[in-house]
Design goal:
The chain has 263 residues and is an all-alpha fold. It folds into 4 domains: 8-62, no CATH class; 77-133, no CATH class; 142-197, no CATH class; 206-261, no CATH class. 67% of the residues lie in helices and 0% in strands. It has 20 helices and no strands. It has helices spanning 8-20, 27-33, 35-45, 48-54, 59-62, 77-89, 96-102, 104-114, 117-123, 128-133, 142-154, 161-167, 169-179, 182-188, 193-202, 206-219, 226-232, 234-244, 247-253, 258-261. The longest helix has 14 residues, at 206-219. The protein starts with 7 loop residues before the first helix and ends with a helix.
């Protein structure tokens, strides 16, 4: 029989199942009785206590309880607010329907402590009205994050931490949540971080930059203002700075009138 392929959701379900069966969930016993689950939890959550917490249980109480005693997480207002803010930073949806389906325990605790889920979200400093209208956000996993990093690297997009924090803070927060840091996420994708720092410059030369500007100009869907291009092709703008001394000089070097480009 092939080995079970663990995912974060399967680990959480297994922990909750053991909890419902009143099994002791401290790391010492789990290593002995459920070695596969324990190894998967370490790999996916970095520690057993983090996996137990992700399952909605208080590990600090579990590890000192006698065997077969049922453990319930004590949700305080502070814990609820911290959880909501962490979910928000990771780009997770916060509308009532989604929370009821995916985080039932959190929903119940928020209703008890704050009166309703929207009031809990507002208490965390987040506008529930905007969250309710927000379109569905992509649900990330470690595998999806790694695939996205590799896709961006293959396209020679900038992946240095300063650029990502400034231009894609949502994705940066997701990576830091799953891998405890942006650089750790890059390495988990099998990419040495030194290559990330070098890749933005090693491809470009003056000829390639001019070709890229011509291609952008021919598209004609938007003005080639520096701020606009920096959002969609930050690598080109950075290369212009390095090889021409700036975006304007690079555009002028293509013999396309800069005033025309801005229209």
């Amino acid at each position: 029989m092939p080995a079970k392929k663990w995912t974060e959701s399967l680990v959480i379900e297994a922990i909750q199942k053991l909890h419902s069966e009143k099994m002791l969930l401290n790391s010492r016993d789990i290593r002995k009785t459920h070695g596969g689950l324990y190894a998967a939890a370490i790999r996916l959550f970095h520690s057993w206590s983090e996996a137990v917490t992700a399952a909605g249980l208080a590990y600090g109480e579990i590890k000192v309880l006698p065997k077969h005693r049922l453990v319930k997480r004590v949700w305080t207002k502070r814990n609820i607010i911290r959880t909501i803010r962490r979910m928000h930073r990771a780009g997770e949806r916060l509308n009532s329907r989604y929370i009821y389906q995916k985080h039932t325990m959190l929903m119940g605790a928020a209703q008890r402590r704050f009166g309703s889920w929207p009031q809990a979200v507002e208490a965390a400093g987040i506008s529930y009205k905007s969250e309710r209208r927000r379109p569905q956000t992509k649900v990330w996993s470690r595998e999806k994050i790694i695939a996205e990093i590799r896709r961006r690297f293959k396209k020679r997009q900038r992946l240095n931490v300063g650029y990502i924090k400034a231009n894609d803070p949502g994705f940066c927060a997701v990576v830091e949540r799953y891998f405890k840091g942006w650089k750790q996420g890059i390495r988990a994708a099998g990419i040495p971080y030194c290559q990330v720092q070098l890749c933005r410059n090693r491809y470009w030369n003056r000829s390639r930059i001019m070709t890229a500007i011509y291609a952008l100009h021919r598209q004609g869907n938007f003005p080639l203002k520096r701020n606009k291009i920096n959002k969609i092709r930050g690598d080109v703008v950075e290369a212009c700075r390095k090889h021409f001394g700036g975006w304007t000089r690079a555009v002028n070097a293509t013999e396309v009138a800069y005033a025309t480009v801005l229209r």
